[in-house]
Amino acid sequence: MLNEREIESCYLGQFIPVHYHHNMLMDNNRMHSFKSAIDYVVKPGMKVLELGGGTGVLSWFAAAKADKVYCVEFNPDMVQQAKKFLAINPNGDKVDVIHADAFEYLPPEPVDVVICEMIHVAMLREKQVEVIESFKRRYAQKFGGPLPIFIPEAVLMAAQPLQQEYDFEGFYAPIVQFQETGVVHNNTVELAQPAVYAVIDFTQPNALSYAWQGSFVVERSGTVNAMRFVTKNILAVVQERGTTIDWLNHYMTLPLAQPVQAAAGDVLQVSFAYRAGGSIPSLEASLQATVVYQAEQAAAIEAVPAFA
């Protein structure tokens, strides 16, 4: 029988099936960004811990330089897959694949770097924030300071109002959509610039919930019927060049229960609240948008002559 945490983990995506890991391996943007960040951060002789290792590929990247890598995975099927893959790759012998819960595991010795990629758009579904916050507390109690370097180091999260097409061959279905970044989406109209609503710095304590109310100046008239959520992962800060190695998740677009009409120049107020690791419907249910300033109406009022 599964306990409560295991049931929730299954529901929220912790037991990701093998075929989905294949999709992650095929994601060149994800793979190249993590490989570059790990190659930059991990120095020869270091000890590395990966929480939520999956196929073991990120641990394998670290093993190119590290002396020892502890790869922790909760899914027993993936533990076997990772061991199989690492056995047929160079330096795979430097990776110790451990079947354990990332919420409970601590390495037998201090480590220099912790890799954790339990990342979903907006920090939903998967347990990235909660796992790292738990790890930091337990690690400090066992080993004291300093804490290891984390990959990713930080996360920026932003929201953007959209007019999204939900007509599928005449069938109207407002439904969550995931979109590739860096390409044009003909059925999506961006009505305002994105606004950052949360910054996560894994070297600092982080809250496990987000409640935001912010305003957008509408740049293009249309029907605001969806919000795009953008998640930019700062995998590593390259201090000597003043740059970062980033990984941008696919955009997540959530429909609004109550669409609103907005004209260019209007001010749109948006609010939402959810917890890290929560479900997508929990965020969707909290989404609200309201036009709080109408540019056309304000201009009409200003145009009325004033009489003494």
From TrEMBL:
Domain of life, source organism: Bacteria
Keyword DNA repair assigned to the entry: answer is no
The record places domain Methyltransferase at 48-137
Q: Which UniProt keywords apply?
A: Methyltransferase, Transferase
For whether the record's keyword set contains Methyltransferase, the answer is: yes
What are the recorded Gene Ontology BP terms? methylation
Pfam families to which the protein is assigned, alphabetical: Methyltransf_25 (PF13649)
The name this protein carries in UniProt is Methyltransferase type 12
- Please name the source species: Pseudoduganella armeniaca
